[in-house]
Amino acid sequence: MSKTKILCITLAVLVGIFFVIFGGYDDSPGLQLIGAVVVIGSIAWCIIGAWRK
Q1: Is-contact 5 50, C-beta < 8 A?
Q2: Rounded distance, CA 51 to CA 24, Å?
């Protein structure tokens, strides 16, 4: 995988984790769900990209 793709996936995971933590602090289940979807989606994208090579 290219360095740019790895950087984008890493940033997406970090932003998703931030959403989950901030959503828990702010008592916002919608923000936590968005964060979880971002994290799971970026990890799935990474795994699918690795399988295709």
Answers
A1: no
A2: 34
Instruction: Please indicate, yes or no, if residue 4 is contained in any of the structural domains.
Output: no
How would you label 6-23 residue by residue, b for 16+ Cβ within 10 Å and e otherwise?
A: eeebeebbeebeebbeeb
- Structural domain including 46 reads 10-52
Domain for residue 2, yes or no?
Answer: no
Res 20: pLDDT = 93
**Number of domains comprising the chain:** 1
Tens-digit pLDDT profile for residues 1-50: 688 888 888 999 999 999 999 999 988 899 999 999 999 999 998 888 88
